[in-house]
Specification:
homodimer, mainly alpha, Arc Repressor Mutant, subunit A, Four Helix Bundle (Hemerythrin (Met), subunit A), 2 domains, three-stranded antiparallel β-sheet, 9 helices, 3 strands, 73% helix, DNA-binding
Chain lengths: 213, 213
Amino acid sequence: MPRASDRLIEQIKNEIFSGLLKPGDQLEEAELSKRFGVSRTPIREAIRSMVDGGFLETRPRKGAMVRVLTAKELNDLFEVAAELEGMAARLASESLTLSHKKSIQEGLQQCKDAAAKEDPTAYAAANLVFHAAIHRAAGNEWLIDQLERLQARINVYRLLPYEVVGRLEKSVEEHEQIADAIFNKDGATANTLMRDHIMLQGARLPSLLKALE
Amino acid sequence: MPRASDRLIEQIKNEIFSGLLKPGDQLEEAELSKRFGVSRTPIREAIRSMVDGGFLETRPRKGAMVRVLTAKELNDLFEVAAELEGMAARLASESLTLSHKKSIQEGLQQCKDAAAKEDPTAYAAANLVFHAAIHRAAGNEWLIDQLERLQARINVYRLLPYEVVGRLEKSVEEHEQIADAIFNKDGATANTLMRDHIMLQGARLPSLLKALE
DNA sequence: CATGGCTTATATGTATACATATAGCAACTA
DNA sequence: TAGTTGCTATATGTATACATATAAGCCATG
Protein backbone atom coordinates (compact mmCIF):
# COMPACT_ATOMS: atom_id res chain seq x y z
CA MET A 1 0.00 0.00 0.00
CA PRO A 2 1.55 3.29 -1.12
CA ARG A 3 1.89 6.12 1.31
CA ALA A 4 -0.46 9.06 1.07
CA SER A 5 2.42 11.52 1.32
CA ASP A 6 4.06 10.03 -1.78
CA ARG A 7 0.84 10.46 -3.74
CA LEU A 8 0.54 14.00 -2.48
CA ILE A 9 4.00 14.92 -3.67
CA GLU A 10 3.07 13.91 -7.20
CA GLN A 11 -0.30 15.64 -7.01
CA ILE A 12 1.08 18.90 -5.71
CA LYS A 13 3.92 18.81 -8.24
CA ASN A 14 1.32 18.33 -10.95
CA GLU A 15 -0.56 21.36 -9.70
CA ILE A 16 2.65 23.34 -10.00
CA PHE A 17 3.54 21.94 -13.41
CA SER A 18 0.02 22.51 -14.71
CA GLY A 19 0.10 26.11 -13.61
CA LEU A 20 -2.66 25.76 -11.00
CA LEU A 21 -0.11 26.70 -8.38
CA LYS A 22 2.13 29.51 -9.47
CA PRO A 23 5.44 30.73 -8.08
CA GLY A 24 4.75 32.79 -5.00
CA ASP A 25 1.49 31.05 -4.13
CA GLN A 26 1.01 30.23 -0.47
CA LEU A 27 0.21 26.66 0.57
CA GLU A 28 -2.08 26.35 3.56
CA GLU A 29 -1.91 22.98 5.22
CA ALA A 30 -5.55 22.99 6.31
CA GLU A 31 -6.71 23.87 2.82
CA LEU A 32 -4.61 21.14 1.20
CA SER A 33 -5.79 18.76 3.89
CA LYS A 34 -9.43 19.35 3.01
CA ARG A 35 -8.79 19.35 -0.71
CA PHE A 36 -6.93 16.03 -0.78
CA GLY A 37 -8.98 14.39 1.94
CA VAL A 38 -6.11 13.47 4.25
CA SER A 39 -4.92 14.85 7.55
CA ARG A 40 -2.22 17.46 7.94
CA THR A 41 0.45 14.90 8.82
CA PRO A 42 1.07 13.50 5.31
CA ILE A 43 0.57 17.00 3.92
CA ARG A 44 3.42 18.27 6.05
CA GLU A 45 5.66 15.39 5.00
CA ALA A 46 4.95 16.07 1.34
CA ILE A 47 5.75 19.74 1.84
CA ARG A 48 8.99 18.78 3.58
CA SER A 49 10.05 16.69 0.59
CA MET A 50 9.18 19.36 -1.88
CA VAL A 51 11.20 21.91 0.05
CA ASP A 52 14.18 19.56 -0.16
CA GLY A 53 13.49 19.14 -3.86
CA GLY A 54 13.63 22.89 -4.33
CA PHE A 55 10.01 23.33 -5.37
CA LEU A 56 8.84 25.09 -2.24
CA GLU A 57 10.40 27.25 0.41
CA THR A 58 9.38 27.68 4.01
CA ARG A 59 10.09 30.11 6.79
CA PRO A 60 9.43 29.05 10.37
CA ARG A 61 5.85 29.87 11.36
CA LYS A 62 5.28 31.34 7.93
CA GLY A 63 4.25 28.28 5.99
CA ALA A 64 5.25 27.14 2.53
CA MET A 65 5.09 28.89 -0.80
CA VAL A 66 5.93 27.87 -4.33
CA ARG A 67 9.52 28.88 -4.88
CA VAL A 68 10.21 31.87 -7.03
CA LEU A 69 13.38 31.75 -9.07
CA THR A 70 15.17 34.92 -10.03
CA ALA A 71 16.63 35.19 -13.50
CA LYS A 72 20.09 34.54 -12.08
CA GLU A 73 19.00 31.43 -10.21
CA LEU A 74 17.41 30.04 -13.34
CA ASN A 75 20.58 30.80 -15.27
CA ASP A 76 22.65 29.05 -12.61
CA LEU A 77 20.32 26.06 -12.84
CA PHE A 78 20.77 25.77 -16.60
CA GLU A 79 24.51 26.19 -16.29
CA VAL A 80 24.70 23.16 -14.00
CA ALA A 81 22.24 21.20 -16.11
CA ALA A 82 24.34 21.93 -19.21
CA GLU A 83 27.50 20.76 -17.48
CA LEU A 84 25.95 17.51 -16.31
CA GLU A 85 24.27 16.83 -19.63
CA GLY A 86 27.66 17.35 -21.27
CA MET A 87 29.18 14.95 -18.77
CA ALA A 88 26.52 12.38 -19.63
CA ALA A 89 27.31 12.72 -23.31
CA ARG A 90 31.01 12.25 -22.63
CA LEU A 91 30.47 9.19 -20.46
CA ALA A 92 28.04 7.75 -22.99
CA SER A 93 30.66 8.01 -25.71
CA GLU A 94 33.24 6.35 -23.50
CA SER A 95 31.19 3.26 -22.71
CA LEU A 96 28.77 2.83 -25.55
CA THR A 97 27.05 -0.52 -26.00
CA LEU A 98 25.04 -1.55 -29.03
CA SER A 99 21.81 -1.54 -27.10
CA HIS A 100 22.39 1.96 -25.78
CA LYS A 101 23.27 3.12 -29.27
CA LYS A 102 19.96 1.78 -30.51
CA SER A 103 18.06 3.60 -27.76
CA ILE A 104 19.72 6.87 -28.66
CA GLN A 105 18.97 6.36 -32.34
CA GLU A 106 15.37 5.59 -31.43
CA GLY A 107 15.08 8.82 -29.46
CA LEU A 108 16.67 10.76 -32.29
CA GLN A 109 14.17 9.32 -34.75
CA GLN A 110 11.26 10.36 -32.54
CA CYS A 111 12.64 13.88 -32.49
CA LYS A 112 12.90 13.92 -36.28
CA ASP A 113 9.32 12.70 -36.66
CA ALA A 114 7.95 15.28 -34.24
CA ALA A 115 9.94 18.06 -35.89
CA ALA A 116 8.72 16.99 -39.33
CA LYS A 117 5.14 17.26 -38.07
CA GLU A 118 5.99 20.58 -36.41
CA ASP A 119 4.37 19.31 -33.21
CA PRO A 120 6.01 21.06 -30.24
CA THR A 121 4.24 18.86 -27.67
CA ALA A 122 5.38 15.65 -29.31
CA TYR A 123 8.84 17.14 -29.70
CA ALA A 124 9.06 17.93 -26.00
CA ALA A 125 8.31 14.29 -25.21
CA ALA A 126 10.73 12.98 -27.86
CA ASN A 127 13.37 15.35 -26.59
CA LEU A 128 13.09 13.79 -23.14
CA VAL A 129 13.38 10.30 -24.66
CA PHE A 130 16.55 11.25 -26.52
CA HIS A 131 18.23 12.80 -23.51
CA ALA A 132 17.11 9.99 -21.19
CA ALA A 133 18.69 7.46 -23.56
CA ILE A 134 22.00 9.28 -23.28
CA HIS A 135 21.68 9.45 -19.50
CA ARG A 136 21.22 5.71 -19.28
CA ALA A 137 24.09 5.13 -21.69
CA ALA A 138 26.34 7.14 -19.37
CA GLY A 139 25.78 4.45 -16.75
CA ASN A 140 26.22 6.72 -13.73
CA GLU A 141 23.20 6.31 -11.44
CA TRP A 142 23.94 9.34 -9.33
CA LEU A 143 24.24 11.48 -12.45
CA ILE A 144 20.93 10.16 -13.74
CA ASP A 145 19.30 11.04 -10.44
CA GLN A 146 20.68 14.58 -10.44
CA LEU A 147 19.61 15.14 -14.03
CA GLU A 148 16.09 13.95 -13.25
CA ARG A 149 15.86 16.40 -10.37
CA LEU A 150 17.10 19.24 -12.54
CA GLN A 151 14.68 18.26 -15.27
CA ALA A 152 11.77 18.31 -12.83
CA ARG A 153 12.89 21.67 -11.53
CA ILE A 154 13.09 23.16 -15.00
CA ASN A 155 9.79 21.62 -16.07
CA VAL A 156 7.96 24.12 -13.89
CA TYR A 157 8.67 26.74 -16.51
CA ARG A 158 7.70 24.67 -19.52
CA LEU A 159 4.38 26.54 -19.68
CA LEU A 160 5.97 29.89 -20.29
CA PRO A 161 4.88 31.01 -23.73
CA TYR A 162 8.17 31.27 -25.52
CA GLU A 163 8.74 31.26 -29.20
CA VAL A 164 9.90 27.99 -30.71
CA VAL A 165 9.46 28.71 -34.40
CA GLY A 166 12.42 27.35 -36.30
CA ARG A 167 13.94 26.01 -33.12
CA LEU A 168 12.75 22.43 -33.66
CA GLU A 169 14.75 21.87 -36.83
CA LYS A 170 17.82 23.44 -35.30
CA SER A 171 17.44 21.30 -32.20
CA VAL A 172 17.25 18.16 -34.32
CA GLU A 173 20.43 19.14 -36.13
CA GLU A 174 22.20 19.58 -32.84
CA HIS A 175 20.91 16.21 -31.66
CA GLU A 176 22.28 14.57 -34.77
CA GLN A 177 25.69 16.11 -34.26
CA ILE A 178 25.72 15.06 -30.62
CA ALA A 179 24.69 11.51 -31.49
CA ASP A 180 27.39 11.33 -34.18
CA ALA A 181 30.04 12.46 -31.71
CA ILE A 182 28.91 9.84 -29.20
CA PHE A 183 28.85 7.10 -31.83
CA ASN A 184 32.35 8.12 -32.94
CA LYS A 185 33.46 7.89 -29.32
CA ASP A 186 34.55 11.52 -29.43
CA GLY A 187 33.79 12.37 -25.81
CA ALA A 188 35.25 15.89 -25.84
CA THR A 189 33.16 16.97 -28.81
CA ALA A 190 30.01 15.29 -27.48
CA ASN A 191 30.52 17.11 -24.20
CA THR A 192 30.93 20.53 -25.79
CA LEU A 193 28.09 20.13 -28.26
CA MET A 194 25.71 18.98 -25.56
CA ARG A 195 26.64 21.80 -23.22
CA ASP A 196 26.06 24.40 -25.91
CA HIS A 197 22.81 22.69 -26.87
CA ILE A 198 21.41 22.95 -23.35
CA MET A 199 22.63 26.48 -22.80
CA LEU A 200 20.93 27.56 -26.02
CA GLN A 201 17.67 26.13 -24.74
CA GLY A 202 18.09 27.85 -21.44
CA ALA A 203 19.38 31.16 -22.69
CA ARG A 204 15.96 32.56 -23.46
CA LEU A 205 14.25 31.67 -20.20
CA PRO A 206 16.05 34.05 -17.84
CA SER A 207 15.40 37.05 -20.06
CA LEU A 208 11.79 36.00 -20.42
CA LEU A 209 11.54 35.60 -16.69
CA LYS A 210 13.03 39.02 -16.15
CA ALA A 211 10.47 40.47 -18.53
CA LEU A 212 7.68 38.95 -16.45
CA GLU A 213 8.81 40.54 -13.21
CA MET B 1 12.37 29.78 17.51
CA PRO B 2 14.01 27.02 15.47
CA ARG B 3 12.09 23.92 14.63
CA ALA B 4 12.86 20.70 16.43
CA SER B 5 13.03 18.76 13.18
CA ASP B 6 15.81 20.99 11.90
CA ARG B 7 17.83 20.37 15.04
CA LEU B 8 17.19 16.66 14.71
CA ILE B 9 18.51 16.55 11.17
CA GLU B 10 21.81 17.95 12.33
CA GLN B 11 21.95 15.68 15.36
CA ILE B 12 21.22 12.52 13.42
CA LYS B 13 23.65 13.52 10.70
CA ASN B 14 26.29 14.00 13.38
CA GLU B 15 25.58 10.53 14.69
CA ILE B 16 26.17 9.20 11.21
CA PHE B 17 29.30 11.28 10.63
CA SER B 18 30.71 10.34 14.02
CA GLY B 19 30.23 6.69 13.33
CA LEU B 20 27.63 6.13 16.05
CA LEU B 21 25.16 5.22 13.34
CA LYS B 22 26.70 3.03 10.70
CA PRO B 23 25.49 2.17 7.19
CA GLY B 24 22.80 -0.45 7.48
CA ASP B 25 21.69 0.53 10.97
CA GLN B 26 17.95 0.62 11.51
CA LEU B 27 16.33 3.79 12.86
CA GLU B 28 13.32 3.19 15.11
CA GLU B 29 11.13 6.24 15.47
CA ALA B 30 10.08 5.42 19.02
CA GLU B 31 13.69 4.95 20.10
CA LEU B 32 14.82 8.23 18.52
CA SER B 33 11.77 9.89 20.03
CA LYS B 34 12.78 8.85 23.54
CA ARG B 35 16.45 9.58 22.99
CA PHE B 36 15.94 13.13 21.71
CA GLY B 37 12.99 13.93 23.95
CA VAL B 38 10.54 14.91 21.24
CA SER B 39 7.51 13.23 19.76
CA ARG B 40 7.53 11.08 16.65
CA THR B 41 6.22 13.87 14.44
CA PRO B 42 9.42 15.93 14.12
CA ILE B 43 11.40 12.67 14.05
CA ARG B 44 9.48 11.58 10.99
CA GLU B 45 10.01 14.93 9.31
CA ALA B 46 13.73 14.76 9.95
CA ILE B 47 13.86 11.24 8.52
CA ARG B 48 11.95 12.45 5.49
CA SER B 49 14.53 15.16 4.83
CA MET B 50 17.43 12.81 5.29
CA VAL B 51 15.93 10.37 2.82
CA ASP B 52 15.71 13.18 0.29
CA GLY B 53 19.30 14.08 1.10
CA GLY B 54 20.40 10.54 0.35
CA PHE B 55 21.53 9.69 3.87
CA LEU B 56 18.75 7.25 4.68
CA GLU B 57 16.49 4.97 2.73
CA THR B 58 13.02 3.78 3.60
CA ARG B 59 10.69 1.06 2.44
CA PRO B 60 6.97 1.39 3.17
CA ARG B 61 6.17 -0.18 6.54
CA LYS B 62 9.81 -1.15 6.97
CA GLY B 63 11.21 1.98 8.51
CA ALA B 64 14.41 3.85 7.78
CA MET B 65 18.00 2.69 7.71
CA VAL B 66 21.31 4.41 7.12
CA ARG B 67 21.98 4.13 3.42
CA VAL B 68 24.58 1.65 2.30
CA LEU B 69 26.53 2.62 -0.78
CA THR B 70 27.98 -0.02 -3.04
CA ALA B 71 31.44 0.53 -4.47
CA LYS B 72 29.88 1.51 -7.79
CA GLU B 73 27.54 4.03 -6.22
CA LEU B 74 30.42 5.64 -4.39
CA ASN B 75 32.41 5.74 -7.59
CA ASP B 76 29.47 7.36 -9.40
CA LEU B 77 29.23 9.91 -6.62
CA PHE B 78 32.88 10.89 -6.95
CA GLU B 79 32.61 11.04 -10.70
CA VAL B 80 29.84 13.64 -10.43
CA ALA B 81 31.64 15.50 -7.65
CA ALA B 82 34.78 15.64 -9.78
CA GLU B 83 32.86 17.02 -12.75
CA LEU B 84 31.17 19.73 -10.68
CA GLU B 85 34.37 20.66 -8.86
CA GLY B 86 36.01 20.97 -12.26
CA MET B 87 33.15 23.16 -13.40
CA ALA B 88 33.58 25.37 -10.34
CA ALA B 89 37.28 25.76 -11.11
CA ARG B 90 36.49 26.71 -14.69
CA LEU B 91 33.85 29.25 -13.69
CA ALA B 92 36.12 30.67 -11.02
CA SER B 93 38.83 31.30 -13.59
CA GLU B 94 36.35 32.99 -15.91
CA SER B 95 35.05 35.50 -13.40
CA LEU B 96 37.80 35.99 -10.88
CA THR B 97 37.71 39.02 -8.62
CA LEU B 98 40.54 40.21 -6.42
CA SER B 99 38.66 39.34 -3.24
CA HIS B 100 37.95 35.81 -4.43
CA LYS B 101 41.57 35.42 -5.42
CA LYS B 102 42.61 36.38 -1.92
CA SER B 103 40.21 33.84 -0.40
CA ILE B 104 41.61 31.07 -2.56
CA GLN B 105 45.18 32.05 -1.65
CA GLU B 106 44.19 32.06 2.00
CA GLY B 107 42.78 28.53 1.71
CA LEU B 108 45.89 27.40 -0.12
CA GLN B 109 48.10 28.79 2.61
CA GLN B 110 46.10 26.93 5.29
CA CYS B 111 46.64 23.71 3.34
CA LYS B 112 50.38 24.37 3.15
CA ASP B 113 50.59 25.01 6.88
CA ALA B 114 48.66 21.87 7.77
CA ALA B 115 50.72 19.77 5.38
CA ALA B 116 53.95 21.17 6.83
CA LYS B 117 52.80 20.12 10.29
CA GLU B 118 51.68 16.76 8.88
CA ASP B 119 48.34 17.21 10.60
CA PRO B 120 45.69 15.29 8.64
CA THR B 121 42.80 16.69 10.71
CA ALA B 122 43.86 20.29 10.15
CA TYR B 123 44.47 19.47 6.50
CA ALA B 124 40.95 18.12 6.08
CA ALA B 125 39.56 21.41 7.40
CA ALA B 126 41.95 23.52 5.29
CA ASN B 127 41.06 21.44 2.27
CA LEU B 128 37.39 22.35 2.74
CA VAL B 129 38.31 26.04 3.05
CA PHE B 130 40.30 25.93 -0.21
CA HIS B 131 37.56 24.21 -2.15
CA ALA B 132 34.81 26.39 -0.64
CA ALA B 133 36.72 29.50 -1.73
CA ILE B 134 36.70 28.22 -5.31
CA HIS B 135 33.02 27.37 -5.10
CA ARG B 136 32.17 30.90 -4.02
CA ALA B 137 34.43 32.34 -6.70
CA ALA B 138 32.46 30.38 -9.30
CA GLY B 139 29.44 32.46 -8.35
CA ASN B 140 26.82 29.84 -9.22
CA GLU B 141 24.54 29.37 -6.21
CA TRP B 142 22.95 26.18 -7.49
CA LEU B 143 26.38 24.67 -8.09
CA ILE B 144 27.47 25.60 -4.58
CA ASP B 145 24.36 23.94 -3.18
CA GLN B 146 24.94 20.75 -5.12
CA LEU B 147 28.59 20.61 -4.09
CA GLU B 148 27.65 21.07 -0.45
CA ARG B 149 25.23 18.16 -0.67
CA LEU B 150 27.82 15.97 -2.32
CA GLN B 151 30.39 16.99 0.28
CA ALA B 152 28.02 16.05 3.10
CA ARG B 153 27.28 12.77 1.41
CA ILE B 154 30.96 11.91 1.03
CA ASN B 155 31.80 13.05 4.55
CA VAL B 156 30.08 9.95 5.92
CA TYR B 157 33.10 7.98 4.82
CA ARG B 158 35.75 10.31 6.15
CA LEU B 159 36.26 8.01 9.13
CA LEU B 160 37.40 5.09 7.04
CA PRO B 161 41.01 4.38 8.01
CA TYR B 162 42.77 4.92 4.75
CA GLU B 163 46.40 5.63 4.23
CA VAL B 164 47.33 9.25 3.65
CA VAL B 165 51.11 9.09 4.02
CA GLY B 166 52.69 11.26 1.37
CA ARG B 167 49.28 12.26 0.07
CA LEU B 168 49.23 15.62 1.85
CA GLU B 169 52.25 17.02 0.03
CA LYS B 170 50.97 15.75 -3.28
CA SER B 171 47.57 17.25 -2.61
CA VAL B 172 49.13 20.63 -1.88
CA GLU B 173 51.05 20.51 -5.13
CA GLU B 174 47.85 19.81 -7.00
CA HIS B 175 46.12 22.67 -5.20
CA GLU B 176 48.92 25.03 -6.24
CA GLN B 177 48.64 24.01 -9.87
CA ILE B 178 44.87 24.42 -9.79
CA ALA B 179 45.15 27.86 -8.17
CA ASP B 180 47.74 28.92 -10.75
CA ALA B 181 45.47 27.86 -13.60
CA ILE B 182 42.58 29.80 -12.10
CA PHE B 183 44.71 32.89 -11.53
CA ASN B 184 45.95 32.65 -15.14
CA LYS B 185 42.32 32.47 -16.27
CA ASP B 186 43.04 29.13 -17.95
CA GLY B 187 39.62 27.59 -17.41
CA ALA B 188 40.20 24.41 -19.39
CA THR B 189 43.34 23.51 -17.47
CA ALA B 190 41.79 24.39 -14.12
CA ASN B 191 38.83 22.16 -14.98
CA THR B 192 40.97 19.17 -15.93
CA LEU B 193 43.37 19.50 -13.00
CA MET B 194 40.53 19.77 -10.52
CA ARG B 195 38.70 16.79 -11.95
CA ASP B 196 41.78 14.63 -11.76
CA HIS B 197 42.48 15.90 -8.26
CA ILE B 198 39.07 14.83 -6.98
CA MET B 199 39.10 11.51 -8.79
CA LEU B 200 42.48 10.72 -7.21
CA GLN B 201 41.00 11.36 -3.79
CA GLY B 202 38.03 9.19 -4.58
CA ALA B 203 39.79 6.39 -6.36
CA ARG B 204 40.83 4.60 -3.20
CA LEU B 205 37.48 4.68 -1.41
CA PRO B 206 35.57 2.24 -3.59
CA SER B 207 38.24 -0.42 -3.41
CA LEU B 208 38.46 0.10 0.33
CA LEU B 209 34.71 -0.19 0.58
CA LYS B 210 34.74 -3.36 -1.45
CA ALA B 211 37.34 -4.82 0.90
CA LEU B 212 35.07 -4.09 3.85
CA GLU B 213 32.13 -6.00 2.42
C1' DC C 1 9.58 -33.64 12.81
C1' DA C 2 8.37 -30.35 9.47
C1' DT C 3 5.12 -27.28 7.55
C1' DG C 4 1.30 -24.26 7.25
C1' DG C 5 -1.98 -21.19 9.06
C1' DC C 6 -3.54 -18.38 12.82
C1' DT C 7 -2.64 -15.18 16.57
C1' DT C 8 -0.50 -11.52 18.49
C1' DA C 9 3.01 -8.10 19.10
C1' DT C 10 5.13 -4.19 17.31
C1' DA C 11 6.37 -0.49 14.40
C1' DT C 12 4.85 2.39 10.74
C1' DG C 13 1.21 5.40 8.73
C1' DT C 14 -2.55 8.56 9.69
C1' DA C 15 -5.67 11.37 12.27
C1' DT C 16 -6.71 14.48 15.82
C1' DA C 17 -5.92 17.25 19.80
C1' DC C 18 -3.15 20.67 22.00
C1' DA C 19 0.53 24.57 22.31
C1' DT C 20 2.39 28.64 20.66
C1' DA C 21 3.98 32.23 17.72
C1' DT C 22 2.66 35.56 14.25
C1' DA C 23 -0.29 38.86 12.06
C1' DG C 24 -4.19 41.66 11.69
C1' DC C 25 -7.35 44.72 13.71
C1' DA C 26 -9.16 47.78 16.91
C1' DA C 27 -8.98 50.96 20.51
C1' DC C 28 -6.59 54.29 22.97
C1' DT C 29 -3.19 57.92 23.48
C1' DA C 30 -0.21 61.67 22.10
C1' DT D 1 -4.55 61.86 12.54
C1' DA D 2 -0.74 58.87 13.24
C1' DG D 3 1.36 55.60 16.01
C1' DT D 4 1.49 52.20 19.45
C1' DT D 5 -0.22 48.63 22.33
C1' DG D 6 -2.89 44.75 23.40
C1' DC D 7 -6.36 41.39 22.12
C1' DT D 8 -7.82 37.88 19.18
C1' DA D 9 -7.87 34.88 15.32
C1' DT D 10 -5.46 31.70 12.74
C1' DA D 11 -1.93 28.83 10.99
C1' DT D 12 2.15 26.40 12.14
C1' DG D 13 4.68 23.21 15.27
C1' DT D 14 4.31 19.35 18.43
C1' DA D 15 2.29 15.65 21.01
C1' DT D 16 -0.68 11.85 21.42
C1' DA D 17 -4.16 8.64 20.08
C1' DC D 18 -5.80 5.44 16.71
C1' DA D 19 -5.48 2.23 12.44
C1' DT D 20 -3.19 -1.13 9.95
C1' DA D 21 0.30 -3.90 7.81
C1' DT D 22 4.21 -6.86 8.68
C1' DA D 23 6.51 -10.40 10.94
C1' DA D 24 7.45 -13.56 14.43
C1' DG D 25 5.97 -17.18 17.38
C1' DC D 26 3.04 -20.91 18.49
C1' DC D 27 -0.08 -24.44 17.89
C1' DA D 28 -2.14 -27.85 15.14
C1' DT D 29 -1.91 -31.18 11.62
C1' DG D 30 0.19 -34.02 8.03
